[in-house]
Design a protein that fits this description.
181 residues, alpha/beta, FAD/NAD(P)-binding domain, 2 domains, 5-stranded parallel sheet, 3-stranded antiparallel sheet, 19% helix, globular, binds flavin-adenine dinucleotide
Length: 181
Amino acid sequence: MVTTIDTDAKTLLLHHGGKMSYDVLIVATGSVPNKFGWPGQDLKGVQGMYSYQDLENMEVYTKNIDRAVIVGGGLIGIEMAEMLHSRKIPTTFLVREPSFWNSILPKEESAMVNQQIVNNKIDLMLKTELKEILANEQGRVKAVVLTNGEEIPCQFVGLTAGVRPNIDFIKSSKLHTIRGW
Ligand SMILES: Cc1cc2nc3c(=O)[nH]c(=O)nc-3n(C[C@H](O)[C@H](O)[C@H](O)COP(=O)(O)OP(=O)(O)OC[C@H]3O[C@@H](n4cnc5c(N)ncnc54)[C@H](O)[C@@H]3O)c2cc1C
């Protein structure tokens, strides 16, 4: 794993202390789930879905729970909703837009997907945004609070509000990124 890039010396520093020189460097390190600074976003039982480890955590944190909440109405969100639904876990799906994935789908198709979500007894909440995530005494999620003040008790929160470039490890280098953070 690359931990730092020394662009002056054209060298990669590796996690076990090794080094590797390069002539041309292509960074293709994928993405990490977006977090927008929501209070409670790093609690136990709050996670994105990108890696195998995310799936393992999801198995652990959805065991015997009463309700899950998914934040973000895109493809990963609906995949997560399907996964929870297949395990018969009551699920609330928060979608900021007035209709599912309406920035991409035609109006009618977006409406059909809304209907399918509801038909499958997933609690679809359109035009709804997360304000914060509350913890229990063990530091585990116990509820979400919406921007309208409503509180929804839950024991798992899936954060599926898009991804950002996985480039934190190059922050200490002199590389300048345009759309990265
Ligand atoms: C749940 C899920 C479902 C998806 N379904 C689809 C789908 O059906 N169809 C579709 O087209 N796309 C799908 N995608 C999107 C697709 O997986 C990504 O667009 C694609 O994997 C991005 O490829 P990538 O090579 O940019 O990054 P990745 O596939 O994430 O690869 C990045 C690589 O970089 C490595 N890396 C990271 N940091 C470092 C470091 N510091 N040093 C060294 N190596 C590092 C990682 O270990 C990894 O091997 C899905 C994504 C998810 C999360």
